[in-house]
UniProtKB/TrEMBL annotation:
Matching Gene3D superfamilies: Electron Transport, Fmn-binding Protein, Chain A (2.30.110.10)
Protein name in the entry: Pyridoxamine 5'-phosphate oxidase family protein
Pfam families tied to this protein: PNPOx_N
Domain Pyridoxamine 5'-phosphate oxidase N-terminal residue range list: 12-131
UniProt lineage: Bacteria, Pseudomonadati, Pseudomonadota, Gammaproteobacteria, Thiotrichales
């Protein structure tokens, strides 16, 4: 049932573009494994072996800390409508902060989101599809607006203060470099 590929096919790229939700998994050699759900139209396929996703301010910053120590990342998407499928994308990622030279060109690929803090750039090493027949159907209703509203109300200075309080290190104490690089 599972199939493996060295790159994304046009069919899989189309599948990715149709999804409203994806999951990101990261860990260092000795940290807790982190799995984060992502939405907000924040994933872009650049080519068959590269994708980027925009990360907005949240209650933690595990992914940034992990990737700066150990560059492994897995992205998973599931079909919640239509034909069943689970898509896992394995690769090596790097974090791009707002002060990095690539930020402007990559950020322009997305609709601007308040509280944007990083872009993750994933070089794809392995793509795997599996059946997904146990995944239930869900109907997409729309995006939640609470995070955008919260970030807009905070403003840039309030977001920076929040980063200082909540985003400078992971739950395992790994530095995220969010203040230094943003």
């Amino acid at each position: 049932m599972a199939q493996q590929f060295s790159a994304l096919s046009e069919r899989l790229i189309h599948f990715i573009q149709q999804q409203h939700l994806f999951f990101v998994g990261t860990a260092t050699a000795d940290s807790k494994v982190n799995i984060s759900p992502k939405g907000m139209d924040s994933l872009r396929v650049l080519n068959q072996n590269r994708l980027v996703w925009l990360n907005v301010t949240g209650s933690g910053n595990e992914t940034a800390g992990h990737i700066q120590q150990h560059d492994r990342m897995t992205i998973m998407l599931c079909a919640f409508s239509g034909n069943p499928m689970i898509l896992r994308i394995y690769g090596k990622a790097r974090v791009i902060h707002t002060q990095d030279k690539e930020w402007g060109s990559l950020f322009s690929l997305f609709d601007p989101l308040p509280g944007a803090r990083q872009i993750f750039d994933l070089d794809i090493e392995l793509v795997q599809t599996s059946c997904g027949m146990s995944i239930p159907f869900f109907e997409y209703i729309g995006e939640r607006e609470q995070l955008n509203n919260w970030a807009e109300k905070k403003g840039d200075e309030g977001i920076s203060d929040y980063w200082l309080q909540k985003n400078v290190e992971t739950i395992d104490g790994i530095p995220t470099h969010i203040i230094k690089n943003n």
